[in-house]
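S.,

Sequence below, as promised.
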Amino acid sequence: MSADSHPHSGAVLLREARVEDADRLTRLFLDSRAAAMPYLPRVHSDEATLGWMTHVVLPGTDVWVAELREDGGAAEPVGFVSVDGEELEHLYLRPDVRRRGIGTLLLAKARERSPEGLALHAFQRNSGARAFYEQHGFTAVAFDDGSRNEENEPDVRYRWSPSD
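The prediction came back faster than expected:
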């Protein structure tokens, strides 16, 4: 199956992100954060977030999109992962598709792209993300008071290596 072919209804397809995905990935990013972490302050406007997605994330990292086709309609992005070398920068899912294995597929793609290992930051209060990464073999290696991120939210540094 080619990287842009579409499977049957209800199947998930992973493909490389394209510039024209910026709007939908920005919306997915904002919706996912709002649903999973309602306590986070909004530090950028939607327009600024779109600019960041368009000019920083998409051209500067390896981004893969999970698409789902349901009920014979067009395939819709339901998640994405962004990797920069051995740094897992972003893994976000549309809130209504959590716990369906899509995050695991995106994480597998990240591991494929960075087979020597991955590191990431997660907010300490984001218990869902923390449980997901720990379930998939990531180990907490450092805790921070939040001074390193724009939200000033305490976070935790995770690391995974294939030998773990």
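Strands lie at 12-16, 62-68, 76-84, 87-93, 118-123, 139-144, 155-160.

Coffee later?
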